[in-house]
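Proteins fold reproducibly. Next comes an illustrative record:
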Amino acid sequence: YKRFNRKLTHHSNPLIAQLSSANIPGNPHKRLKRQFCRDLLI
């Protein structure tokens, strides 16, 4: 999780970088958002 999050903080898309900095692992809503962003990156 940490390694993935570190990659996102330096992502070229500012929205994705902003999402990664606001993520809380225990929050299901944010976790779904993060999963969605990761799907876009692939």
Summary: The chain has a mean pLDDT of 55.
